[in-house]
Predict the 3D structure of the following.
Amino acid sequence: MLSRTASNLFWLGRHMERAETASRLFEVGARITLLPNTAEGYQNEWQSLLRATGVADSYAVRYGDVTEENMEKFMVFDRDNPSSVASCMHEARESGRIVRTALTSRVWDALNVSWQEMRAMKPGQEDAADLADFVARHAATVHGAIDGTQLRNDGFHFMKLGYALERADSTARVLDVKYFVLLPRVEFVGSGLDSYQWHVILRALSAHRSFHWAYGEDVSAARVAHFLILNHESPRSLMTSVQEALAHLDALVRRYGEDVPHTARDRARALADRLAGTDIDDIFDEGLHEFLSDFIREIGVIANHVQADYFHGRG
Amino acid sequence: MLTLGSGGEGALMYYNEMFDGTKVREAYAGLADWIDHMPAEIRQMKQAEAEALFRRIGITFAVYGEGGDPDRLIPFDMMPRIFTQSEWRRLERGIKQRARALNAFLRDVYGRGEIVRAGRIPARLVYQNDAYERAVVGFVPPRGVYSHIIGIDLVRTGRDEFFVLEDNCRTPSGVSYMLENREIMMRMFPELFRGNRIEPVDGYPDLLRRTLESVAPAKCQGRPRVVILTPGHFNSAYYEHSFLANLMGVELVEGADLFVEGEFVYMRTTEGPKRVDVIYRRIDDAFIDPLTFRRDSMLGVPGLMDVYRSGGVSICSAPGAGVADDKAIYTFVPEMVRFYLGEEPILKNVDTWTLWKDDDYRYVMDNLGDLVVKEVHGSGGYGMLVGPRSTKAEIEDFRLRIQANPSNYIAQPTLSLSTCPTFVNEGVAPRHVDLRPYCLCGERIELVPGGLTRVALKEGSLVVNSSQGGGVKDTWVLSE
């Protein structure tokens, strides 16, 4: 497969997943502000959201004031923000268009329709939850078309690898928002406000029901973190995402043979092993934010190795 | 390209491909009933269905045309254009003959230049031609073939009267329409294909692949790897490039996907570099190698020409092939047929006056109002004068331009191109058509029985360009 084709398929997956993340983060923000907490009001939460996604500066320059209206424009519709829903969906469709012949017509249709409908939407029409539903629905259609109709060849593995790595990265970022949403004072830990915030995080990941099925207990920091980091059954957990990425990298190595470089696979396997040997107390002892930052960095390293192993093409 | 006739004098003087007076011609015998028995509402329904199919199958036509109107599809007319087997055989012989002569000419002018030495073609027109590539002088590509896909634009003016308007020796486009028009017709009117024996055209992609494989370079080992080189997905013909790559089962590459190392060209793949043997390029000469041609080209592959000249890769069509299809050289193609093949040309050229000759210059200047005048290097209907359709002021304005640089122009009579019945709002009416068949040259010279028929949809119009209200038709060749 042409390196460029593989790279486009990989980024198609990443951008679709990233679009979903952007809309989820926006929903998290909108929900958290529903709860009155500090004297500074909701501004605090939006700020921490911006910091979590690493775009606070570019927002400040372009919009200044932090308001929900501006946040919607910026996170959902702004084509100058490369992480906005619209930008990601556009990029995903562009990648699809370039490698049109590597996609089934169902996948292309789904991609094309989702972009056309996104383009027809205007800021201020839908509330955050409806927007997130809209994006999740289209993302699911595309993903379903890929799973249902694509040949299980290398192209498929590159797409799914893109999804898995992006999902690992995005769950870590959503979780990290909690770190930034500082509770006003230390005595609030374990308070109603604290658990409300954890609830919101679960909801944003469409995971509040499955959390209760899995744990059958009240929401607590340790349980939610366990669910989203180490749980093998949780579909968006770091563990599941890394395992999936590893499975697709393994499939590529089987397909291409050991002669084609496979540093990305080796690195992913090491990460999966490391996660398997960690328990949630270790993570909290190390510091959740520190753990997540390391994890996000490691996902970046694996993505760079994917690039070097497969997309450079000069051997 | 623009095709013209002396318009306004009524439809009677044009050759009607379906009717001879009131009698239906042989080729269309099977179709007369079909038209008669199609009520208007069915026809409208079918036309809507055809358009919906085009939008779905051809959704990418629209998508890839994004530079302009995203919904721009070339209008498709359901009424086919038909040739009998014997009409086609003659055309086919003429096209193949012309293709042989054009390739012989290219071999000659990049070699000893016999035709120039013999005084049959002025040296200036060849060696000072913009399309003449010094970089390939003395190099003979595999099988001596320079132009592997030749699109020859033809018009018909009578039962046995065909004229060549233009040769396209570089990268003629439009073949995807030929294939999709047929696909749509077969889906919509399967009964027509059962009732009429129509030669298939869907072998084209395989034939093209075999043609390209047959010109693999000497250093190629094993089965040749063919790729299509595209300028990229922003190009308006990108859809055609990816359509062909898909049907041929070859990779569609951009310049950045290829690199030169040592004696060969490689493409970057997920399994490391893979050697490429034959490049069907859909980018212009000027862009294929920044080390040899335009230095600012981002579309090409640095070093490609060195590999080409040392027999490491084949480029189709060969760099420099364009010298055979320019409008000034065009007038000499019948001469090439005689000179290289010792045959009389089967297909006629349109009479052409070359304004750098004094006699021709005087004649043209005296008769500007009746003639079509074109720039030698112009295309797409730009930089031309259509005498019978122009105002006095326009003619005088053009006269000044000719006077300033006579050798930049040629002139031709306005042709009475044939008409073919076409579905229009009021029913069926004659509309002017032309034809572009695609001739493939490799180990053998072949063409599929068919081509792209373009039709001027506006009443009385002789302009078949899609940018000026032209549409396309399926083109049938009946088997015996």
